[in-house]
Amino acid sequence: MRISAITNWAYGVTVVLTVLSGGAFILSADSANQERLAVEEHLAFEALAQDLALGAEERSDEARLYVMRGDERHLIAFHGRENEEHRREATIKTLKARGASSAETAALEEVEQDAEALDRLEVAAITAYGNGEQSKAQQMLFGPEHERLQTDLLETVARFRDLVNTRTGNALNDARLRSDWFGLVAKTMLALTAALFLGVLYFVLRRRIAMPLAHMTGIVTRLAKQDYAVEVPLDQRRDEIGEMNEAIHIFRANGLERDRLDAERRLDQQTKDLILQMMHRLQACQTQTELADVVARFAPQIFPNLAGHLYVLNESRTLLSTIGSWLDPHQSAASFASSACWGLRRGRPHLSNRGQSDIACQHLNESNVTGLCVPLTAQGDTIGLLYFEERSDVVTDVETSRLYLELIAENIGLAVANLQLREKLTHLAVRDALTGLFNRRWLDESLNRHAREEAVSPLVCLMIDIDHFKRFNDEFGHDAGDVVMQYVAQIVIDMVGGAGTAYRFGGEEFTVLLPGMTEAAGFEFAEALRTKIATAPLSHRGRILGSVAVSIGVASAPAAGTVPTLLTRADAALLNAKAGGRNMTVSAAKLILGGLQDQA
Q: What's the rounded mean pLDDT across residues 181-195?
């Protein structure tokens, strides 16, 4: 029940009890008034009876004294008593009118009759005394008749007094009982009113209001401090306190929801910030290795519950190879055919094994792993794959992060495409299109860089020229000449490996820089290279081209000269080798030494 209803009911009951208590008090007061009237009536009747008895005796005494002494004073007193008798008679009539009972009325009438008889006798005695009949008068006043009449009068008065005492006593008892009963009722009603008031104060104010409010005050204080972890007991009461409790529950639920939304917003903003940071760093990467490192560093921060691989397609678009991984994914192969991925086949993100609702990619090791494959595309071309899988020790939902995953994949795809394009442009800028060797421009930059930064470090330069190259062009065509140059270039690349760098100097000439070698070691390397080139015959389109011979000039720095003169000295040695009959290696140092000997 609502507090307002309880209060209204309590107010109504209190008013009713108060009215009843007031009525009881009024009735009790009325009963007390009736008791007072009964007492007054009793006293009035008692006084009347007393006056009747006493008046009769006093009048008889005055009459007797008069006839005995003859003193007029007694006669005057007798007549004065007579006036009092008339007044008492009037009082008796008044008492009859005030509601005396029939028995009392009969007694009063009998008193009147006895008083009149006694009065006549005494008047006759006084008259006889006045006529000189003193003895007769005395006989009349002191005789048995007078005694009888006086005795009857007194007995009748006594009987009247008994009747009055009985009646007024009963009336007095009835009035007292009614007064006591109504007083008790009034006190009971008053006690009930007080108990109801105190009960309402205790139950409504303390139990229903004060205690819940005191409890909710601490809860509201903590909620005001945004401490939504506080437990709010659910109060099922259907009153104002219950409504307040429900409102506090709603406020707490709204606060928790707001905190959850704020946490999601902060997490979402943090994810966006990390994605933005990763994008900025992706734009600054110069190689795919750097790009893979950036992705492997930021992906676990953005999606801590998702492991993954970064795959790149080969030039033939048939094979995917891993260039970066994070959080140890183990359900997808390190490399696989592009046809093994449904995401690449369809050209759109593909979710495998989410409740077995779709077919799984073939590159997954297990059929129950949940993985998301997002193709990396740029300008409509697929260049790689971004793969995510749910970690077995963490419960997550890859679907909820799909939008961000696709956004990251789009930016990674653009970054990889830019790097690949940069590599292609760089390759075109510094490499020879026919042989794949570095070009003359890159050779000059390499020598200048060595002269600036490592001028004191040993460096050997080989100048290589294909002997009688024009013969291949003239006899077999320019395509055959291109094959010869590619053949020589490939052998040079294989022989040099990581020991140095090979360049196409121009035409059919090649240059090799071997850092950290002496000229003698360079000469031996040149001889081995020349021998390898000449060992196997070469064919083109089913025609034997024959063996290929080269002439090589060797020069070194800084032992035999400076770096800026290195090419000149190696070229001079090469010219000497060609002049000496070709298919040989000539060292610039020996050439200089031989010239000095000839001069000597």
A: 79
- The residues, any chain, with a CB within 8 Å of residue 300's CB and separated by 6 or more, are 326, 327
Token duo for residue 334 = 């390190």
Centre a 10 Å sphere on the Cβ of residue 534 and count the other Cβ atoms it contains: 14
pLDDT at 227 over 80: no
Cα 446 from Cα 468, distance rounded (Å): 29
Q: Are 545 and 551 in contact (CB under 8 A)?
A: no
The two tokens of residue 375 are 């193709």
Smallest Cα–Cα separation from 65: which of 148, 129, 153, 152? 129
What's the CA gap between 489 and 509, in Å, rounded?
Answer: 10
Residues in the chain: 600
Question: pLDDT tens, 365-377?
Answer: 766 677 888 999 8
- pLDDT tens, 58-99? 777 777 777 777 777 777 777 776 666 666 666 666 666 665
Q: Are 201 and 208 in contact (CB under 8 A)?
A: no
CB-based contacts of 212: which residues, under 8 Å, 6+ apart?
235, 241, 245
Helix axes 440-453, 402-430, angle to 10 degrees: 90
CA distances from 265 to 68, 262, 269, 278, 566 (A): 136, 5, 6, 19, 65
Task: State the pTM of this model.
Answer: 0.51
pLDDT of 596: 42
CA distance 292 to 416: 9
Q: Is 303 helix (H, G, I), strand (E, B) or coil?
A: coil
Instruction: Give Cα separations from 14 to 132, 194, 345 (angstroms).
Output: 86, 9, 87
Q: Is 453 a known active-site residue?
A: no
Distance, in Å, from the CA atom of 419 to the CA atom of 282, rounded to the nearest integer, reads 10
| pLDDT of amino acid 368 | 67
pLDDT at 392: 64
Q: Which residue in 508, 509, 524, 527 is the catalytic one?
A: 508
End-to-end CA distance of the chain: 132
pLDDT of 4-48, one tens digit each? 666 677 667 777 777 777 776 787 677 667 667 666 666 666 666
* Residue-wise DSSP of 379-421: TTEEEEEEEEEE-TTS---GGGGHHHHHHHHHHHHHHHHHHHH
In which band, very low, low, confident or very high, does the pLDDT at 478 lie, cut at 50, 70 and 90?
Answer: confident
Could you give the CA distance from residue 343 to residue 334 in angstroms, rounded to a whole number? Answer: 17
Class of residue 122 by CB neighbours under 10 A (exposed 0-12, middle 13-18, buried 19+): buried
Query: How many other CB atoms are found less than 10 A from the CB of residue 264?
Result: 10
- Cα Rg of the chain (Å, integer): 71
